Amino acid sequence: MTREQRPWHASRPARALVIALTIAGLAYALMFFKGLQDIVAPVFLALNFYIVVYPLQKYLTKLKVPRAIGATISVLLVLVMIFGFFGLTAWSVAELVLLIPSYGEQLVATYQSALSFLSDIGVTSSVLQQQFQQFNVRSLIDAVYPLLTNVSLVAGLLTTVVMAVFFVAMDSMGIDRRMLMLLDVKPSLAASLGGFASGVRRYWVVATVFGLIVAVLDVIALAIIDVPLIWVWGVLAFLTNYIPNIGFVIGLIPPALLALVDSGWQSALWVVIAYSVLNFVIQSIIQPKFTGESVGVTPLVSFLSLLFWVWVLGWLGALLALPATLLLKALLVDADPKAKWVNILLASDPTTANSSTEEPPVSPVTESLGDTLGSPLGMSDSEESEESAASAADEDSLTTPHSEAEQDTSGPKN
């Protein structure tokens, strides 16, 4: 039987082999990224921040501001965001470390009370009692102090992020033309990348706005309960709002423990109640309405992505869990029309995910391309398309300057 006479399925590799090779390739890539997490995570963080500010750069370009100046302004804004984030984190940890010694006696008394309570209810394990009896404030300070003294680690992380921001800014000045070319070659990939950029931008903006709201309300509640260091706990609540699922718990434990040590279990209980009510109402009911389906994944997917990306990217994976999941989804699911059924399993609203797979291919490409280029401050899609086409035409004219000369020389001859 000749090759032309063979059945079409005979020349195809076995489906199981393709799946096995795909899984093996993904596993190898993830292990590779895990080994380079000190580089991959800061670079991806810089990319996320630049995606957020890119609409401003597009708006400046529309105002006839030179692209280099627009990119420079965007870089400065990203650097303010990055250093502000790490600065607030360092300040919160420093204030907490300075506070611990002043509550040394109360901490010891609280742990002694806990030990007595465990003995009263029948917990008499000698190992447990030994651990409680060996507790002292110095051991707690020794455990927290390395967070501040490891200057080289923080400096290396910030250096990588800053360098990545500059390189992303350089590439951003030509992203319009690249996306238009990608639209002609791989329209589904252009649509998926556009959806990723739009979803990441909305995620960071909404998380920031609602994080500020939650932080302000937490500060007010803690002031009413009379818990020390209310501004530190407000900053902590704002920062942990970026961590999905467990960020609320991380932001709750320190002020609740301080309230327990400072004023007793009644104050700690009120802190838990206040945080729980505010978190449920704002983050579970109101915030998803503004986030929409651009970041809408099921709670299980969100939690598993948190665990997975922390393992792959380190502690920065807690902040980048949802953006990294959106990128993986854009490349493996949204870019392949045959794999879009996976959205039904991942999306928080399966009816919306199912309907999105039935849309005509042109509409989501156009909309996603507009999101990728960053339609700034209410600019319509038609205006954005005209601007992109005009910029592409200008670049074409610069690359082919001899075309007009040929037409001018041929004109008199006719």
Helix percent band: over 70%
The gyration radius over C-alpha positions equals 27 Å
Number of helices: 20
Identify the quaternary structure here: single chain
Weakly predicted, low-confidence segments: 354-414
User: How large a portion of the residues is in β-strands, by DSSP E?
Assistant: under 5%
Give me the strand/helix succession.
Answer: HHHHHHHHHHHHHHHHHHHH
Query: What is the residue-mean pLDDT, rounded to a whole number?
Result: 74
Computed structural class: mainly alpha
Largest sheet at a glance? none
Counting DSSP E segments of at least 2 residues, the number of strands comes to 0
Describe it.
InterPro entries: AI-2E-like. There is one protein chain. With 414 residues, the chain is mostly helical. It has a domain at 20-172. It has helices spanning 15-35, 37-62, 67-99, 104-120, 126-133, 137-144, 146-149, 151-172, 175-185, 187-225, 230-240, 247-263, 265-291, 299-313, 317-334, 342-346, 350-356, 362-373, 381-399, 402-413. Helix 2 (37-62) packs across helix 8 (151-172), helix 3 (67-99) crosses helix 11 and helix 9 packs across helix 10 (187-225). The relative contact order is 0.10.
